[in-house]
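TA notes, week 10

Several of you asked for a full example with nothing omitted. So below is the full record: structure tokens for the whole chain, then the designed sequence directly under it. When grading your own attempts, check the secondary structure regions first.
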């Protein structure tokens, strides 16, 4: 059951090695085999944070709701994004032999879309579709090339980018387009993303898109405690 956003978790096996656990007098659990001690309150906290992360709650919302420091929630979220990336790379190894479609995408933050030179500040990535499994690959930034272009050249450059697609998508309503729409909708949850962290946010949404919420929660819980 769930109470005030905190999971009440009844453990019968070790989260580290899946062996039998027994109760200690201080309320913690201890594994019979690996001897690790487990704090039920800490586990409840982490599972609650994972649940909120998958539900796309912001760190500020969770901080206020659960009375946890904002910086602490941010650190947990950074860890979850890293785990999303690990899982995504592992899943890619299983599907990479399938035939795929792929297309390039340029993401420009809303605050910059009216600026002609913003195309050089866009986040560029390839999106692959392996039999309805999305995989993304971040591309190098174009910002270093801005000095080589005059502003009047930018429209021509944008047209070139449109006309020189890596592959023509066979269906404009395909899985790649659906992922882009999903990404565009949910990336707005975050009010500005540091350039050097964008790849982890991209993998977060790749991971969430490829799984149901229940699947995503279970995978993250298992990966976190592994």
């Amino acid at each position: 059951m769930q109470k005030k956003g905190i999971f009440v978790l009844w453990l019968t096996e070790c989260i580290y090695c899946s062996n039998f656990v027994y109760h200690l007098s201080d309320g913690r659990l201890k594994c019979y085999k690996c001897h690790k001690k487990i704090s039920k309150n800490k586990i409840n906290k982490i599972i609650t944070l994972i649940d909120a992360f998958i539900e796309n709650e912001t760190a500020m919302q969770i901080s206020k709701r659960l009375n946890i420091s904002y910086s602490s929630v941010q650190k947990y979220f950074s860890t979850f994004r890293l785990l999303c990336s690990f899982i995504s790379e592992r899943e890619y190894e299983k599907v990479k032999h399938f035939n795929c479609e792929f297309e390039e995408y340029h993401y420009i933050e809303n605050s910059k879309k009216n600026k002609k030179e913003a195309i050089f500040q866009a986040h560029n990535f390839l999106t692959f579709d392996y039999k309805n499994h999305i995989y993304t690959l971040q591309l190098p930034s174009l910002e270093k090339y801005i000095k080589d272009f005059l502003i009047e050249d930018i429209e021509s450059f944008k047209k070139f980018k449109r006309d020189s697609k890596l592959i023509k998508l066979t269906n404009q309503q395909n899985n790649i387009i659906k992922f882009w729409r999903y990404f565009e909708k949910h990336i707005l949850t975050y009010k500005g993303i540091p350039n050097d962290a964008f790849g982890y946010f991209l993998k977060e949404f790749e991971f969430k898109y490829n799984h149901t919420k229940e699947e995503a929660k279970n995978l993250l819980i298992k990966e976190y405690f592994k």
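The CA atoms of residues 63 and 72 lie 8 Å apart. Use that as a sanity check on your answer.
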